[in-house]
Amino acid sequence: MKIKIGKALDQGFQVLFKNPVVLAPFVGLAAIQYFFYQYTLWPMMKSFQNIPGFNNDFNLPMVSPVGAQIMPNWPITPDFSGIPFRDDVLYPFALTASIFTNILKVMPFLALGLVIGIILYLAAIRLIAETAKNNPPNLGSALILGLKKFIPIIISGILSMAMIMIGYVFLILPGLYLTIRFMFFVQAAMIDDQGIISSLDKSWQVTRGNWWRSLGIIVIPTVVAGIIGTMMGAILPLFTSPASNLVTVIVNTFFMAWVMGVTITAYLQIHEPEEPGQA
Is the dihedral of CA 149, 175, 6, 201 positive or negative? Predict the structure, then answer.
């Protein structure tokens, strides 16, 4: 069955508002992203201004008053004390070592956020699929399934990425071709309960004869998101309100949800057997 791009784009938007339960994982994903910006990325970047001889103003208006208040006592607050001035022969070595040490500080928090974020992402796929099929979505069951499928999907992702990277090393086009052929393996695992290898095989099957259409359902939302993102990038820096970062997170999360909805509804179109009489 062929993908109907227009239908997928429309259904991918509508399914997000059929049931408020569908939006629950995205609230969690937005919270993780906001936490990362406010209390991990911003303190790390802003602290570079305190390095002797490192006069680089990042001009980040995204920090909130709450973030500024807890930074001094926050366990991941970067520390660049003890670094010699730029003209010191040891400056590059001390700076590199200090940056590496401070990155190690935030790694546990980033790793935890990544794991939670992936599980929420997988749960969202299940919830959207159930809603699109007019079944009542169950957040608890979706989270449990996401936790259960976490390791198999990671392994499938590593296998597909290895093959895709081989394609890109030799020629760009084989890598792009494989990227599209394997783009539905997560949906196959979360919706059809496929395993490590069978999810990759399922994605390969459903994209047969739908390669260009599958590319289209990725390119079109990405272009739309890019245009709006560019507009926001030009407007938000004009405001110093702490809410500007929150707006960015909300918009980014919405477009991520829309792209997810589009790919899931497209997958549901093509993974089912053709109806009698269809060519």
Answer: negative
